[in-house]
Specification:
Elements: H1 2-7, E1 8-10, E2 14-15, H2 51-57, H3 91-97, H4 108-116, E3 119-126, E4 141-150, E5 154-157, H5 159-162, E6 165-172, E7 178-180, E8 182-187, E9 192-196, E10 220-225, E11 234-248, E12 253-260, E13 272-275, E14 278-287, E15 294-298, H6 299-312, E16 323-327, H7 331-336, E17 346-351, H8 357-360, E18 366-370, E19 373-374, E20 380-383, E21 387-390, H9 392-396, E22 403-410, E23 413-420, E24 440-442, E25 445-449, H10 452-456, H11 462-465, H12 468-476, E26 487-492, E27 507-512, E28 515-516, H13 520-528, E29 534-539, E30 544-548, H14 549-562, H15 571-579
């Protein structure tokens, strides 16, 4: 899974300092056959950007166009005239009468024409936290991505385009003006975000795109956006290659995705994939090391994200059953658990204690059906025409607090059980975007909750470079109760008070004065409320730290002043301390 996750790459918005390389992709018109019985091919599928050159190559006048293609309007304004084919291309009508040309209600050219008034370029200024020094941010960076307008005067883009943003601007196609945008909602698991623009001028002449459905295999899509290599809008075409749950590189979650062979590059992030006159998905990542393998977020995931925001006013997350399952493809395994020959299902091997399933399911149950849909021995369920997909997709499409009916085989008997589904937080957070990291400093010891972004600070190869024990716990351990965190001693800021303890960094803190630590907030309250002469920390590997409490409190302000740290604790802990009426431990210089 980790190798696959590393091979997936977000179409992270291209930096303004990206090196640009150009290559001519304009096709040369083929020489006309001496006595060709058929007319020239129709030009409706070419984009507006190529029409002048192609027309010149065929000696077509570019000035006399008339509107004949149907227009599809959103609620944000009207569409521009759609150019038709020049009068010289009379052979197209003859070919249509002869049955050699098949027309569609909305051709690719009209779809692209509609997208030109809907797709915007997103400019983001962002600043990510420094998890090694959690009291400060990293250097500000500028990046760019794409987005498109949907009904309700909202703009859809990728979450990674606006992650850790400090300022966001958008620009329409063909406009020199940038408009300030506000982030309404962000779903990092599904890599989607909604933007709003207050300026009335921005919405003048803007069309909204309608969401379509999941395309079938080999159906053609056009990806519209602003990839690196230029400043203007870009359109690439491809076909659908695969539809299945895929690892989302930004949110590290498994959700449905559509694989296409269109050329998608950094900067395409957030741009729509158009099929017909509707959106088939949102471009968001590609497969590094492979050519023309890109991924788009399908419409069901987009609708699930938007509906959650509309119902609750904020992103509500995607549900999970909270169980780990094993395939039952081995005949002996199925016989051992009493499965008859006609039965199919998966074996429940582990259950998250925070899930509703923990109270209902048992280890070694055989999960036969989910909401009446039979689960195969490999964990898949039927999907469309002779396709299959893992049953996790059915779970992820449920809304929070919805109930699912599970048919299980337990001790040889079939049972139907009701389980309430909800989003579950892992013991070690996978991402921490758009929020400041928590920390607590006492006597030079920096305590933080373990997160995967902290491990990512060890570099590109963080899985091998980060502390092995912390990495294994981050990826495999489950929480035992709500609010639990793994608190670690991340580093020691040297002072006379902590000499000799500097090698104890990167270890988990188990106890404070004999009390087991539940989370960072609990550790902070135990230290601040200490009434004993000595303060003792019990760490991993049976290591121990003992400090004279009053001397350590005095040393804290000295350490903060030396390292120019504004506060001994993060703002969330300061707020909690003030709420609980405890002594505020904000030692400032």
């Amino acid at each position: 899974m980790l190798a696959a996750a590393r091979s997936l790459r977000r179409l992270s918005s291209c930096s303004s300092s990206s090196v640009r390389s150009f290559r001519s992709v304009l096709p040369h018109p083929p020489p006309p056959a001496p006595s060709a019985p058929l007319p020239l091919p129709p030009l409706r599928t070419f984009t507006r950007a190529l029409l002048p050159r192609i027309a010149a190559a065929h000696r077509f006048p570019t000035a006399s166009f008339s509107s004949s293609a149907p227009s599809h309007l959103g609620e944000c304004g009207g569409a521009r005239e759609v150019p038709a084919i020049p009068e010289e291309a009379e052979g197209e009508e003859a070919a249509e009468e002869a049955g050699l040309l098949v027309r569609h209600d909305t051709d690719a050219y009209a779809a692209v024409e509609l997208a030109l008034d809907s797709v915007v370029k997103v400019f983001t200024v962002s600043s990510s936290p420094n998890y090694f020094l959690p009291w400060q941010n990293k250097a500000q960076r500028e990046s760019m991505g794409s987005g498109f307008v949907i009904p309700g005067r909202r703009i859809v883009t990728n979450a990674h385009v606006v992650a850790d943003h400090t300022f966001v601007l958008v620009r329409k196609h063909g406009s020199p003006t940038k408009y300030k945008a506000e982030v309404q909602a962000v779903g990092h698991e599904c890599d989607l975000a909604l933007l709003t623009v207050e300026s009335e001028e921005f919405w003048d002449g803007v069309n909204s795109l309608e969401l379509g459905d999941i395309p079938f295999l080999q159906e053609a899509v056009a990806v519209v956006g602003y990839p690196q290599g230029g400043d203007n809008i870009s359109v690439t075409k491809g076909v659908v290659s695969r539809v299945e749950p895929t690892q989302y590189a930004h949110g590290a979650t498994q959700l449905m995705a559509i694989q296409i062979d269109a050329a998608i590059n950094p900067g395409n992030s957030g741009g729509p994939a158009i099929m017909g006159d509707k959106v088939a998905g949102v471009a968001f990542q590609n497969l590094s090391g492979a050519e023309n393998i890109g991924y788009i977020i399908p419409v069901p995931v987009i609708k699930r994200f938007i509906s959650g925001v509309e119902e609750s006013g904020r992103y509500s997350g995607f549900c999970t059953l909270g169980v780990s399952c094993q395939a039952t493809e081995n005949v002996q395994l199925r016989e051992c658990f009493g499965m008859r020959s006609e039965m199919t299902g998966v074996l429940v091997s582990r259950i998250n204690p925070l899930s509703d399933a923990y109270k209902i399911l048992k280890k070694d149950d055989i999960l036969l059906e989910f909401d009446g849909v039979p689960i195969a021995n490999d964990g898949t369920v039927p999907f469309r025409n002779r396709e299959r997909i893992t049953f996790d997709h059915l779970v992820s499409m449920k809304k929070p607090e919805e109930t699912a009916v599970l048919k299980v085989l337990r001790d040889g008997e079939e049972q139907e059980l009701n389980v309430t589904l909800r989003p579950l937080q892992p013991l070690v957070p996978v991402h921490q975007f758009d929020k400041l990291p928590s920390y607590y400093i006492f006597a030079g010891f920096v305590f933080i909750p373990l997160t995967q972004p902290y491990l990512h600070e060890f570099g590109e190869d963080w899985y091998n470079a980060s502390p092995r024990r912390l990495c294994e716990r981050a990826l495999r351990e489950l929480p035992k109760k709500a609010g639990e965190q793994l608190v670690i001693l991340s580093q020691v800021l040297m002072d006379d008070i902590n000499v000799g303890y500097e090698r104890l960094a990167e270890l988990q803190v188990k106890k404070v004065n004999g009390v087991e630590v539940e989370n960072l907030k609990h550790l902070c309250s135990l230290v601040e409320g200490c009434t004993e002469e000595n303060l003792r920390f019990d760490l991993d590997d049976e290591r121990v730290i003992v400090l004279k409490y009053q001397n350590a409190r005095l040393a804290t302000s000295r350490v903060l002043k030396r390292h120019r740290i504004p506060s001994a604790m993060s703002s969330d802990l300061v707020k909690d301390q003030a709420t609980n009426g405890e002594v505020e431990a904000s030692f400032t210089s």
